[in-house]
Amino acid sequence: MTPSTEGDDLATRLADVDARIADAARAVGRDPAGLTRIVVTKFHPARLVAALAALGVRDVGENRQQELTAKRDALRQAQRPGPGTGDQGRGYAERGPAAIEDVRWHFIGQVQTKKARAVRAASDAVHSVDRDRLADALHAADPDGRSLDVCVQVNLTDDPGRGGVAPASAARLAEHIAAHCPSLRVRGVMAVAPLDEAPAAAFARLADIAAEVRTVVPDAAWISAGMSGDFAEAIMAGATHLRIGTAITGQRPVHG
């Protein structure tokens, strides 16, 4: 497949998903403009982010700290072509460096406390804060007084080993962040629908939890929910941020 064909396919998939998002929003009386579509580029190369930016994408999601840091660094370097940059840097620049500069990077994977500093340095928003210690570590890693948007991740399963705080503790965690981590801004909640439950029911529960969080942080309006296979149900339940990967990016490269 040639690069131009890859680009055409990417644009087609992006337009198709955006049309489906708009249809799902209008079907429940919501304005599509009020939704944020985050394209998850897990395991794809940095050049895909550049191609997405050239198509107008402004929100990108990553699951792994090393991958997030590497991609963001590569694209920053590509915006400063010079001796030794090579064809790769010129290629990124041709795709629109101003657009790349506007990309917001959302970290959506589990965070080890020891990696909080690296995650904070590379992220504009972290959707997966699920314990006091992690919130405290992200706050302590504040490099320059810049506020970091965060979501409280909620575990909607019965497995305590899964990422996320228990539903009954979500508001308490949000209160801790608001009271003790002033460099973090609680924007809302995030969750993944369990495999053994209908997405609509799971996201309805998340909407109730989001309402509880707003009793302690009134402007925490984000509900980060919905992926390639269930974003319509998430929209129906009030999701504001959709994390969509393969439906837009295509199949992920084989990762060893």
Folded structure, characterized:
By secondary structure, the protein is of the alpha/beta class. It has a single domain, classed as TIM Barrel (Alpha-Beta Barrel), CATH 3.20.20. It is 45% helix and 15% strand. It is built from eleven helices and eight strands. The protein has helices at 3-27, 46-54, 65-78, 86-95, 97-101, 116-122, 132-140, 170-180, 199-214, 231-236, 246-249, and strands at 36-40, 59-62, 104-107, 125-129, 148-153, 184-190, 222-224, 241-244. α2 packs across α3 (65-78), α3 runs parallel beside α6 and α8 (170-180) runs parallel beside α9.
What structural keywords apply?
256 residues, 11 helices, TIM Barrel, alpha/beta, 8-stranded parallel beta sheet
Fold topology:
Elements: H1 3-27, E1 36-40, H2 46-54, E2 59-62, H3 65-78, H4 86-95, H5 97-101, E3 104-107, H6 116-122, E4 125-129, H7 132-140, E5 148-153, H8 170-180, E6 184-190, H9 199-214, E7 222-224, H10 231-236, E8 241-244, H11 246-249
Parallel strand pairs: 1-2, 1-8, 2-3, 3-4, 4-5, 5-6, 6-7
Strand content: 5-15%
What class, by secondary structure content?
A: alpha/beta
CATH C-level category: Alpha Beta
Oligomer: single chain
Q: What can be said about the biggest beta sheet?
A: 8 strands, parallel
Q: Element order, helices and strands?
A: HEHEHHHEHEHEHEHEHEH
Q: Care to count the β-strands?
A: 8
* Strand adjacency order, main sheet: 7-6-5-4-3-2-1-8
Q: What would the CATH topology be?
A: TIM Barrel
Overall spatial form = globular
Q: Tell me the name of the CATH homologous superfamily.
A: Alanine racemase
Mean pLDDT: 91
CATH architectural grouping: Alpha-Beta Barrel
Indicate how many domains the architecture comprises.
1
* Helix share bin: 40-55%
Low-confidence stretches: 84-97
> Whole-number radius of gyration?
18 Å
Distance between the termini: 22 Å
Count of DSSP-assigned helices = 11
